[in-house]
Amino acid sequence: ARYPVICIDGPSGAGKGTVTWRLAQVLGYQLLDSGALYRIVGLKAFEAGLITTDASQPIDESAVLALTKSLKIAFVPNNESGRVDIIVNGQAVGDQVRNETVGGYASQIAVFPKVREALLTLQQDMATRSGLVADGRDMGTVVFPDADVKVYLTASAEARAERRVTQLVNAGQAADFDSILATIKERDDRDENRSTAPSKPAADALLLDSSMLDADAVYEQVKRHCQEQG
Ligand code: C5P
């Protein structure tokens, strides 16, 4: 049987995670946070010494590929938190992948076609068990080209940097708008201009700019689009 798939693609900070989570809850679908896969590989590659904090250093693609293939990755729904835990080699990957440094590592290894290919079946298999809401960069273009619903959610880099600053400040952390903006632009640039599976809207995606919208408004528009698509 083929289950419905909803793809939410776009750059980081556009609000994909929130809308994906709400849709999955309301529809009773599974959630695929594909960025987490790239983040895990990025973090493991860093820990293995395959990438450094200097993004201009060349990376050994075949070594990253071997490392990717050696990871046993599983997505396990957590009924307590209501979220999906990612288990790598038997260990839960916590919030340690959710920071901009690891986001940068992720985008450095995400340029490698063979690494992406190694992660493909794992992602596609998630749609063989139940409905799926998938968020990432290439869900609608590469991983689920015949998905039922595709949305490309964007926002200006400034709006996204502003949100990030608010998040950090609310968490009691220091935040510098200019350096956050520069980091966002650097990652966007790498993700949008790589030759394999660049971040871009599928031809049949709804383009939604969340710069002037709050999370509720984004959710309502995406929900309406899902209803229109049947
Ligand atoms: O979405 P998130 O910020 O967690 O993604 C981290 C990085 O992983 C992105 O900047 C991108 O380089 C990569 N990625 C990707 N394809 C996806 C999801 C994420 O290349 N489907």
From TrEMBL:
Does the keyword Transmembrane belong to this entry? Answer: no
Q: Which UniProt keywords apply?
A: ATP-binding, Cytoplasm, Kinase, Nucleotide-binding, Ribonucleoprotein, Ribosomal protein, Transferase
Q: Please give the SUPFAM superfamilies that the UniProt record associates with this protein.
A: P-loop containing nucleoside triphosphate hydrolases
Task: Provide a GO CC annotation, any one.
Answer: ribosome
Which residues of the sequence carry a binding annotation for ATP? Answer: G10, P11, S12, G13, A14, G15, K16, G17, T18
GO molecular function terms attached to this record: kinase activity
Xref: InterPro entries: Cytidylate_kin, Cytidylate_kinase_dom, P-loop_NTPase
Which transformation does this protein catalyse, written as a reaction?
dCMP + ATP = dCDP + ADP; CMP + ATP = CDP + ADP
Where, per UniProt, does this protein localize? Answer: Cytoplasm
Q: Which NCBIfam families match?
A: cmk (TIGR00017)
Give the family this protein belongs to, as stated in its UniProt record. Belongs to the cytidylate kinase family. Type 1 subfamily.
Q: By what name is this protein known?
A: Cytidylate kinase
| Species name | Psychrobacter pocilloporae
